[in-house]
Design goal:
Pfam families: PhoH (PF02562), PIN_4 (PF13638)
Family: Belongs to the PhoH family. In the N-terminal section; belongs to the PINc/VapC protein family.
Strand content: 15-25%
Keywords: ATP-binding, Nucleotide-binding
Protein name: PhoH family protein
InterPro entries: P-loop_NTPase, PhoH, PhoH2-like, PIN-like_dom_sf, PIN_dom
Distance between the termini: 49 Å
C-alpha cells in the first residue's frame, strides 16, 4: 500500500524558533563550572557573589556577567580544558545553539536565560516567598508556618507539605473549619477531611505533648519531618487602631505578631490563599506568602507542549545506523525509522517531532513510538490536511491540528489532552473524531460530553427539566460545532441534514459532573470540556471512570480559569498533562493557531 502523501508545504503557523530544539541546559554549563574555583583567589568578597547567586540563580545581571568576564580573562587554561572535555555533548544541540556557543565563549555578555521554548518565559522569581522565608532558606533554619483556614480547605493534605518545617494552627482557624464543615460542596468535604486528620494526629497524645508539638510523621507521612502546634492560650498583640478586633483575619494576624515576639530568632511566616490577607500582613510588617505547594509547575510556560522541532542536522547526526520499514496498523500503512543519536534522550514517547527544511526539501512529521536509551523509533503520520483523509468532513488546517487528529483517531491512544486558546479547534476536532468513530467505524458506542458548571458571570439560578435539559445551556459550544459539522453534508438536502442531526443527537449524551462518582463507562468516547476549571481531585475522579475500550479527551485553555483558588499551575488540566506525559497510551498537543475567524484571532492577540 502506498504511503500517505506528505505535505509539500510547511504549515503557516508558529515560527520555527517558537519550538524547543534542545534541552536548553548545555549552553551555559561550560562557563558555570570553572567560575567557582577560579573566582576565589581573584575576588575579595566571594560571600557577596554567593548571595547574589542564591537570590537569583537564573538571572543574568551585570554583576554576574562582570564576574564571569574576570574569570574568563584570568583562567583561559581552565576554559580551554572545559571546552575540550565537552565535544561529546555538542551534537545534542540544535543548529541555532551551535552558532551562539562560540560567541558565548569569546564574549561573556551573551550569557542569558534565553532558551528555545515556544512561549516567552516569565522570569523565575523567588519573591513568591517572603523575606523571612528566603533568609531562613539561606541560613538553613527551620520555619514556623501559621496556616490560614483557606489553605486547609483548599488542600486537606497541606499539613504534610512543609517538609522539615513546623506548622502552627491558631484557634480561629479551627473555629472557621467548624463553620464550613456542613454541606456537600468541595470546601465542606475538605474541611471534614482536615478535622479527621487532626483527630488522628491528636489521638493517644497527652495534654503536655500538645504544647511540645505533635510529630507530623505520626500517620506515616515520612516527608513531613516537622511538628504540629496548636494555640493553647490567648495570645494578644497590639494591632493598629481601626482594625476590627473580632474579625477572624485580624485575630490570626494578632497571633502571628505574638509568635514573632515570643519566638525570638525563629522565622514565623503566615501562609494564606487570601490575597487581601497577605496584603494586610505585609502592610503590618508581618511575613506572609501564598501556598504554592499544590502547583504542578511554578512557571506554566514550561508546560509540556507535546511537540518538538528537530534540529536541521538531525538526519546527518542520527542517520548513521538508520533502519526503516513499513507496517500496517489500524488499516493504514506507516513508515517507521529507528534512529540513534544524542538528541534522543530529550524526547518522550508519543511526542510529535517535525523538521521543515528551509532549502525546499519535503518536511518530515513524525511521532516517537519507542525510546531505549539513545535509540528511538519514529513513525510517520497520516496527513489529515488532505481531503481524502478528512474526518467527518473536517480537515486539519495547520500542523498542530494534524498532530491532534492523529491522536484522536488512534485507537491505541486511550487518553488525549488538547490545550489551546479560543478558536483553535479543540471541540470541533474532538466532536468530528468522535462522530467518525461512533457512527462510521463503530469503534465506540456513544459520545459522552461533560463539563464543570462554573459560570463566567452571575449564576442564573436553578434550571428546569431533566439532567440533560439542565446541562443543555452549558453545552452551547457543542451545539455550535454540531451545526458546523452538519453543514458539511450537502448531498442529502435539508431533510437529509435533519435526519442526520437526529441520528447524531441520539448518539451524544450530555452528563453532569456531579453524578460521575461510582460510574463505569465501557466503549465510550468521553469528552471533558473546560477541564481547566477542574481540580486535580475532580480530574482523577473522571479519568478513573474509564472502563474497557473507553477513550477520554480533556479539552481546555488554562488562561481561562473561572474556579476560585485555582491557578494555571494548580489546575487539574495542568496536573494530568504533566502526569501523563511519556505514557505509551496517552498523548498531548498544544494547539497554537486560531482558526475560528480573523476577528477572533485578532481579538485574542490584542484584548
Amino acid at each position: 500500500m502506498p504511503l500517505p502523501k506528505i505535505p509539500s508545504q510547511p504549515a503557516t503557523i508558529l515560527l520555527a524558533k517558537d519550538y524547543p530544539k534542545a534541552s536548553g541546559t548545555h549552553a551555559i554549563a561550560p562557563l558555570a563550572v570553572p567560575a567557582e574555583p577560579a573566582a576565589a583567589p581573584k575576588k575579595a568578597a566571594p560571600a557577596k557573589a554567593k548571595a547574589v547567586q542564591a537570590k537569583a540563580p537564573a538571572s543574568t545581571k551585570a554583576g554576574k556577567s562582570s564576574a564571569v568576564a574576570a574569570v574568563l580573562k584570568a583562567a583561559p587554561a581552565v576554559l580551554k580544558a572545559a571546552a575540550a572535555a565537552e565535544p561529546a555533548a555538542q551534537p545534542a544541540k540544535a543548529p541555532a545553539r551551535a552558532k551562539v556557543a562560540p560567541a558565548a565563549r569569546s564574549k561573556v555578555t551573551p550569557i542569558s536565560t534565553k532558551t528555545p521554548h515556544p512561549a516567552k518565559h516569565k522570569p523565575v522569581e523567588v519573591p513568591l516567598k517572603s523575606s523571612a522565608s528566603r533568609h531562613a532558606d539561606q541560613t538553613g533554619a527551620t520555619k514556623l508556618f501559621v496556616l490560614d483556614t483557606n489553605v486547609l480547605m483548599h488542600d486537606p493534605t497541606s499539613l504534610f507539605r512543609f517538609e522539615e518545617h513546623d506548622v502552627y494552627l491558631p484557634m480561629m482557624t479551627l473555629e472557621e473549619l467548624d463553620n464550613h464543615k456542613k454541606g456537600m460542596t468541595e470546601v465542606a468535604r475538605n474541611a471534614r477531611q482536615v478535622s479527621r486528620t487532626l483527630d488522628a494526629l491528636m489521638s493517644n497524645t497527652d495534654d503536655d505533648a500538645i504544647d511540645q508539638g505533635i510529630p507530623l510523621s505520626k500517620l506515616g507521612n515520612k516527608d513531613a519531618k516537622g511538628r504540629l502546634y496548636f494555640q493553647t492560650r490567648i495570645q494578644t498583640a497590639d494591632l493598629p487602631l481601626g482594625l476590627p478586633v473580632g474579625k477572624a483575619d485580624n485575630q490570626i494576624l494578632s497571633v502571628v505578631r505574638s509568635l514573632e515576639a515570643e519566638q525570638d530568632g525563629r522565622h514565623v511566616v503566615l501562609v494564606s490563599k487570601d490575597i487581601n490577607m497577605r496584603i494586610k500582613a505585609r502592610a503590618l510588617g508581618l511575613p506572609a506568602e501564598d501556598y504554592f505547594n499544590d502547583h504542578v509547575l511554578e512557571d506554566t510556560d514550561l508546560l509540556y507542549s507535546g511537540i518538538v522541532q528537530l534540529p536541521d542536522d538531525f538526519w546527518s547526526k542520527h542517520g548513521k545506523d538508520l533502519e526503516s520499514w513499513q507496517e500496517n496498523k489500524n488499516g493504514q500503512s506507516a513508515t517507521f525509522y529507528r534512529v540513534t543519536g544524542p538528541f534522543i534522550p530529550s524526547l518522550l514517547v508519543n511526542q510529535f517531532v517535525f523538521l521543515e527544511p528551509k532549502n525546499g526539501e519535503a518536511p518530515f512529521y513524525g511521532q516517537v513510538k519507542q525510546i531505549n536509551g539513545k535509540t528511538a523509533v519514529l513513525q510517520t503520520l497520516r496527513d489529515y490536511s488532505h481531503n481524502k483523509n478528512s474526518v467527518w468532513g473536517v480537515t486539519a488546517r495547520n500542523r498542530e491540528q494534524n498532530f491532534a487528529l492523529n491522536l484522536l483517531m488512534n485507537p491505541e491512544c486511550d487518553f488525549v489532552t488538547l490545550l489551546g486558546q479560543a478558536g483553535t479547534g479543540k471541540t470541533l476536532l474532538a466532536l468530528a473524531a468522535g462522530l467518525a468513530q461512533v457512527l462510521e467505524t463503530k469503534l465506540y458506542n456513544e459520545i459522552i460530553v461533560t463539563r464543570v458548571t462554573v459560570p463566567v458571570g452571575e449564576d442564573i439560578g436553578f434550571l428546569p427539566g431533566t439532567e440533560e435539559e439542565k446541562m443543555s445551556p452549558w453545552m452551547g459550544a457543542f451545539d455550535d460545532n454540531l451545526e458546523v459539522l452538519n453543514k458539511s453534508d450537502s448531498d442529502g438536502g435539508e431533510w437529509g441534514r435533519a435526519a442526520t442531526q437526529d441520528l447524531i443527537r441520539s448518539r451524544i449524551k450530555i452528563k453532569s459532573l456531579n453524578f460521575m462518582r461510582g460510574r463505569t463507562f465501557v466503549n465510550k468516547f468521553l469528552i471533558i470540556d473546560e477541564a481547566q476549571n477542574l481540580t486535580p481531585k475532580q480530574v482523577k475522579t473522571l479519568v478513573t471512570r474509564a472502563g474497557p475500550g473507553t477513550k477520554i479527551l480533556c479539552l481546555g485553555n488554562i488562561a481561562q480559569i473561572d474556579t476560585p483558588y485555582l491557578t494555571e499551575g494548580s489546575s487539574g488540566l495542568t496536573y494530568v498533562v504533566d502526569r501523563f506525559k511519556g505514557w505509551s497510551h496517552s498523548g498531548h498537543v498544544t494547539l497554537a493557531r486560531g482558526e475560528r475567524s480573523r476577528l477572533a484571532d485578532h481579538a485574542s492577540d490584542v484584548l
